[in-house]
Amino acid sequence: MREGFRGGVFGGIDGWRRVVGEAKDDGWGLTVVLGIHTTPTTQPIHPMELLEGRRIVGSVFGDFKGKSQLLSLADRCMDGEINLEGFITHQFPFVEINGAFKLLVEGKCLRCLLVL
């Protein structure tokens, strides 16, 4: 999907923004922005869109609520209900931390485990 946006689906990420903007209805609707962008930019929006009822929300972790759900999540991980090890795609000694960050920024791994 990421490569599709970069490579030209709807004209790349800029075209995707245009398509999403055109797909919304005037006066209502919801735009959800997900994830973390490696080089964030400001996106223009006309204030009238918000005054007419348009909503924009963002989330890094989906609908997970850190304050109220973190302890429950930790319990589920400790009980083996959630397999976190399956999400670790790379393992590095701590001295190679820069290489781990490079892979993360380039989108070439899901999670790096650094070993002390």
UniProtKB/TrEMBL annotation:
Catalytic activity: a primary alcohol + NAD(+) = an aldehyde + NADH + H(+)
Gene Ontology molecular function: any one: zinc ion binding
Annotated GO biological process: formaldehyde catabolic process
Domain of life: Eukaryota
Gene3D superfamilies: Medium-chain alcohol dehydrogenases, catalytic domain, NAD(P)-binding Rossmann-like Domain
PANTHER family: ALCOHOL DEHYDROGENASE, ALCOHOL DEHYDROGENASE-LIKE 4
Record protein name field: Alcohol dehydrogenase-like 3
Species classification: Eukaryota, Viridiplantae, Streptophyta, Embryophyta, Tracheophyta
